[in-house]
TrEMBL record:
Pfam families for this protein: Aldedh
Subunit description: Homotetramer.
Active site: E257
One Gene Ontology molecular-function label: aldehyde dehydrogenase (NAD+) activity
SUPFAM superfamilies, per the entry: ALDH-like (SSF53720)
EC number: 1.2.1.3
Protein name: aldehyde dehydrogenase (NAD(+))
Amino acid sequence: MTDIAIRTQDILDRLGAGNPFVADGDLVCRSPIDGSEIGRLRSHTADEAADVIGRAQAAFEQWRSVPAPVRGQFVRELGELLREHKDDLGALVSIEAGKIVSEGLGEVQEMIDICDLAVGLSRQLHGLTIATERPGHRMMEQWHPLGVVGVISAFNFPVAVWSWNAALAFVCGDAVVWKPSEKTLLTALGCQALAAEAGRRAGVPEGLSAVLLGDYRIGEVLVDDPRVPLVSATGSTRMGKQVAPRVAARLGRTLLELGGNNAAIVAPSADLDLAVRGIVFSAVGTAGQRCTSLRRIIVHESIKDDLVTRLKAAYETLPIGSPLEASTLVGPLVDQPAFDAFGAAVEQATADGGDLVTGGTAADVEGDGFYVHPAIIDMPKQTEIVKAETFAPLLYVLTYSDLDEAFALHNEVAQGLSSSIFTLNVREAEQFMSVVGSDCGIANVNIGPSGAEIGGAFGGEKETGGGRESGSDAWRAYMRRSTNTVNYSTELPLAQGVEFV
């Protein structure tokens, strides 16, 4: 076993997840850090997956009658365990997803934060009292638990996305069955071990939280099962277009968090020191493998040369290497296909007339990981490769002369997740956030598009899928609404003045 595999085993032991190497394992777990094997797990069969969903349904039927504030105690226990094991789980995220140390720890902190939010929410799952036209009547709405929630997550946020869904679903009275990415199975087992321990402490029904291991075929079992009224799927737009019609065919619900092609408009009044810091993190954090990663700069022609010069200088000093080293800022791409896609996009962009400002080549790092020098490409126009999402540290530079042109370039892509503008002009900022500006679900001013807090609803429009997770009123997706009218009079008036005698 490699040093990384031994460290992984030690972490899983401390998390209570057991041996990552099982007999007859068909799912090979590799670290993108050096390509080494760190686990080998066995896929669930379709029948086993159906049984897991059945146990979750049985658990839901008990859990839904537990008062919501009591359900919150389960999530409180989970949050405390995450605090206790933050360093270990953060390190496991770095080992399995390739995130730098700070980002791995930050992802676990995001889990802790959503648990805190959900515990408070467990006492605020409120409906409305509604004015009624009929005397002696009261009309109101209530929110009730929905059922088994299926969660399908991607490799790039291997634990946080599960927690966004699970923490809210649990306090809303639902069970959760999680199908993680095949690229990040061990982090899922670590989370499940902590959830199981929290469940034992809180006395929750067995099967309330479960993990399904396997490829897309196991995902299809979850997607197609009528006992799963909500499927929350995070991944590519291509994946979402496969999931959505399958769930719709059985009249289920979907919560989709799909691709992004996020831009930052840089206006003439921008604080360029601030803009450069925001752009660099948003573009190269997680090696450009976030759905919120910055992929396009739309900069005013009067400051383009200055901005590009500053960015080039910043890019050429970025430490690239193992994400386990504290000094590293850019870790590996997840695998060979991601590396190949990066190279193909650079080649196509330059063939389209783009000028490669910096980067775009493989980085020399020991081991069999896939490391690259983050690229900046100055584009003459917004070509098809610019409009496509390449999951890698690839930043395109576009130029505008007036704000309407900038908005048009910004909104021209099919995706609509996150966006930003750097400006000190309040009119430009307000226009960007208005109906005529950004068409994305997230629109920021003087910060990049990446790095959302859990207090706000997270999600996007257009081919990003329209879903909302995390804060604000995103909890409503995990519940069903019931409108109630109570007649406390001795009369029976009908609505709209209808007479029936």
